[in-house]
Design a protein that fits this description.
The structure holds 2 protein chains of 2 kinds.
Chain A: H1 19-46, H2 50-55, H3 68-75, H4 87-117, H5 123-133, H6 138-152, H7 158-182, H8 186-194, H9 199-210, H10 212-228, H11 231-236, H12 244-252, H13 261-282, H14 284-293
Chain B: H1 14-19, H2 21-41, H3 58-64, H4 67-98, H5 105-117, H6 120-130, H7 137-143, H8 160-185, H9 189-197, H10 202-213, H11 215-230, H12 234-239, H13 251-261, H14 265-296
Helix pairs in contact in B: 2-14, 3-14, 4-8, 4-11, 5-8, 6-8, 8-11, 11-14, 13-14
């Protein structure tokens, strides 16, 4: 078939500067400006001094560029009695995110593997509960979890929050891994079993090495999701272990003192920087991750 | 295998069962147990600590006669309906624009989607700054000569929820666009050819052929948007703090405030049970359509 149609296929190529194209790109350009505006405003505001902000307009570029707001946001901004800036929240977030991501992915990957290739009676029922549970508003479950964490003795600690992230990351991650492992050819699995490999052997030596892309998707999903979390951070940690988002909100929305908008915007940008960098580096994989994780809301 | 008679059935496939322990615990203890616990305790008069003194539907009666709760429900309805309409319309239109075989599609998609990588806290704080009447959009327009121009949604109790809506749409429409774009790409190219041969205008093809064909995508997107709406919390906390007064209160914030600040657990439990109920109302018809429909077809 393909050989018969050597000639050009599809619609006639249009002129690049047709009226349709000018309109199309014009509209896309205007919408892009709207979407980029807040990012632009954050950047220019964070580079201005306060006198310039009071006089000028928020869209104008800084006349005199200063990095003082960034320094202040990072190292000196106050929340309550602590005046060591957002750096404290940053390191807290790192300490929360790294173990949460590792633990949640490890648990969900093994779980998804068991659900797809080593089904046991009742497994599907628990999985169904897990997926339905993803739709339950967190507010319904937060207080019982407070009690459980208090009983185990990790309420208010980083590990309590890590556990919470592992629990609430489980539905979507398990779904992700289960679907992926289900698409693995069964012959491969059977051949490995004939060769004497067991549950963990097949997982570690065959499944994990061949499913790196899905691990990357899960990684992107979890790092951005956990980094951006606010609700769990504010409930399950104490002021000195608050993650970055909580601390940011406390810095910007504190009622005491003079509002320093440039410091606030520098702090906001700093907090948004981690997920933004991940987003711009990961590109298409991020899209895949959110398409899978969208259910998480 | 031959040496595994009945008594050892529990031990068969033991590794898979061990691997599923976190899932089973999460499903049973947190999702089922936690939810049941909260619903159960919503019928008690728990204050600072949960206690088992039943008061029937008292908490619910009090809830529905509290002005603040009614405001939060009203806000959720306005925010929800408008978010639903606008995200579907904007998301679909953006997807259609990007589907016109344009150049730089990846660039435009990256621009429209990047806000989704940012947390609601960051989103709320940026838009708080842009909508600041003293320095933001209002000030800029006034300095252009329109000295009477008024645009301060975050300081006007009547329209504050629309200010939150602007920020919410900016953050979330990119995701909807991505889902819609995936839907558009899933449509068979032959449909387009057939429509072109029949001389049907493009816009008519979209409305009468493509959109009905994308029904599953729309349904999934609808559920994603709606389950996100019920959970809206961080955005309001960051952008308005629920103010001015209680004008931008939402249910999730009401729950948090009563559980952890007002120390009126019973009210918090009752309010969160109402949130659960609203999700049930959304998800059950969807599950019925999705899974009941498959059986029929």
């Amino acid at each position: 078939m393909a050989d018969l149609t050597k000639g050009p296929r599809g619609a006639k190529p249009r002129k690049i500067l047709s009226r349709r194209n000018i309109m199309l790109y014009g509209i896309l350009f205007v919408i892009s400006v709207y979407y980029l505006l807040p990012l632009y405003v954050m950047v220019v505001t964070s580079l201005k001094g306060m006198p310039e902000i009071r006089l000028g307009n928020i869209f104008s570029p800084p006349v005199e560029i200063t990095f003082q707001p960034w320094v202040k946001a990072w190292a000196q901004a106050c929340t309550g009695l602590n005046c060591d800036g957002l750096s404290r929240g940053f390191w807290n977030s790192v300490q929360i995110t790294v173990p949460s991501v590792i633990l949640s992915i490890a648990v969900a990957a093994v779980n998804g593997y068991a659900l797809s290739l080593w089904k046991f009676r009742g497994a599907e029922t628990f999985f169904a509960i897990l997926i339905v549970g993803a739709f339950i508003p967190y507010q319904v479950m937060i207080y019982p979890i407070v009690i459980i964490l208090r009983e185990i003795g990790i309420y208010g600690t980083l590990w309590g929050l890590v556990l919470v992230h592992t629990i609430f990351g489980m539905p979507i991650l398990t779904l992700l891994f289960r679907n992926y492992f289900s698409s693995v050819p069964e012959e491969l699995f059977k051949a490995a079993r004939v060769d004497g490999a067991g549950f963990w052997g097949i997982f570690l030596r065959i499944m994990v090495p061949m499913s790196l892309p899905i691990f990357v998707v899960a990684l992107i999903l979890q790092v951005t999701g956990i980094w951006n979390d606010f609700l769990f951070g504010v409930i399950y940690t104490r002021p000195d272990t608050y993650p970055m988002t909580v601390q940011l909100n406390n810095i910007v929305n504190s009622v005491q003192g003079v509002k320093e908008y440039n410091v606030n915007m520098a702090a906001t940008l700093l907090t948004g920087l981690v997920p933004l960098i991940i987003y711009f580096i990961s590109g298409k994989l991020f899209v895949r991750g959110i398409a899978a994780g969208a259910v998480k809301g | 295998m031959s040496t595994s008679p009945r008594p050892y059935r529990l031990l068969r496939n033991l590794n898979a069962k061990i691997a599923s322990v976190p899932m089973i615990l999460t499903a049973l203890v947190i999702f089922v147990g936690g939810t049941a616990w909260t619903v159960f305790y919503s019928f008690t008069d728990s204050k600072l600590l949960p206690r088992l003194r039943f008061v029937g539907l008292d908490q619910y009666e009090r809830l529905w006669s509290t002005g603040r709760w009614l405001t939060s429900i009203e806000n959720l309805l306005i925010y929800g309906v408008l978010t639903l309409i606008f995200s579907l319309v904007i998301g679909f239109l953006l997807a259609v624009l990007l589907d016109q075989k344009i150049r730089f599609e990846d660039t435009f998609r990256t621009i429209f989607l990047y806000p989704f990588a940012l947390s609601f806290i960051v989103t709320g704080l940026v838009w708080q700054w842009i909508l600041n009447p003293e320095f933001g959009v209002q000030n800029v327009v006034r300095s252009l000569g329109f000295t009477e121009f008024v645009f301060d949604p975050l300081y006007d109790p009547d329209i504050v929820i629309y200010g939150v809506l602007i920020a919410g749409l900016w953050q979330g429409t990119g995701l909807i666009m991505c889902l819609m774009l995936a839907g558009l790409r899933g449509i068979d190219e032959d449909i387009w050819k057939a429509a072109r041969i029949d001389g049907i205008p493009t816009w008519k093809t979209y409305i009468f052929i493509i959109i009905p064909m994308m029904r599953p995508v729309f349904v999934t997107t609808l559920v994603i948007i709606m389950s996100g709406i019920v959970k809206v919390y961080d955005l309001v906390v960051a952008q308005t703090g629920g103010g001015p007064g209680n004008a931008s209160e939402v249910p999730a914030k009401y729950v948090y405030d009563f559980m952890f600040a007002a120390q009126n657990l019973g009210q918090g439990f009752a309010a969160s049970t109402m949130m659960l109920l609203s999700v049930v109302i959304i998800v059950v018809p969807w599950a019925y359509l999705e899974f009941g429909g498959k059986r029929r077809g």
